[in-house]
Amino acid sequence: MNAKAGSLPLPEIDIEEFRKVVRTRRSIRRFTDEPIPEAVLEDCLELATLAPNSSNLQPWEFFVVRTPELKAKLAHACLGQNAAKTAAALIVVVARPDSWRAHARQALEDWPEEKLPPIVEKYYRKVAPIHYNQGPLGILGLAKKAAGLAVGITRPVPRGPYSNCEMKIWATKSTALAAQNLMLALRAHGYDSCPMEGFDEHRVKKLINLPGKGLVTMVLAAGRRAENGVYNRQYRFDQRQMVHYL
């Protein structure tokens, strides 16, 4: 099979190896003292940023905390959870609903092909500034919502984001996809993680000097799992309860 322009031939994939990564990923509550090698962390973070994301605007940031003093303060801000206190590294996963404008410009500057397609240039220069901009006090967002309601009577239209609150949701969805890539990458390297939502966001943001509009999606504890790192057997609800075929 010939590869298309800008792509490589698809490699063979071993589904059983992938299944092992997914099935052995657990939220680890206690880690050993073993550090995570720099090369492993860098590879995992690179794989995280390959996650699918809205308009390729990549509205995320990762703050890797490994220095003992700052890590101890961050663990305290994570309510003293064992996962936070014993992790080799704490990674603050941040959604940035405010980065879309700069990233739209960068998407054009970093376009990987020799020729920039007109439709791509139009999207990032004209469509994105309208689609994601909510305007002063959200006025533009309200106008877009009204227009969407009117036009949507006769044909399908994008429904949002229509407010700064919806922009936060927009950014968080893409950032959560990147976080999942990160957790699976750590597992594939033989390390583990624990995504934590229990934290004082105000203190976490202050510790990492995060601008006010940044959202802490989760704090990810990472390291080598301890023997007592898993607290109970994994279980999920019956798939028939959650999956619907229409």
TrEMBL record:
Name the source's superkingdom. Bacteria
Q: Which GO terms describe its molecular function?
A: oxidoreductase activity
UniProt keyword Translocase, yes or no: no
Domain Nitroreductase as annotated: residue spans: 22-223
Q: Which UniProt keywords apply?
A: Oxidoreductase
What the entry lists under Pfam families is as follows:
Nitroreductase
- Family annotation (CDD domains): MhqN-like
Query: What protein family is recorded?
Result: Belongs to the nitroreductase family.
What name does this protein carry? Answer: Nitroreductase family protein
Q: Which organism is it from?
A: Marinobacter flavimaris
Give the source lineage, highest ranks first.
Bacteria, Pseudomonadati, Pseudomonadota, Gammaproteobacteria, Pseudomonadales
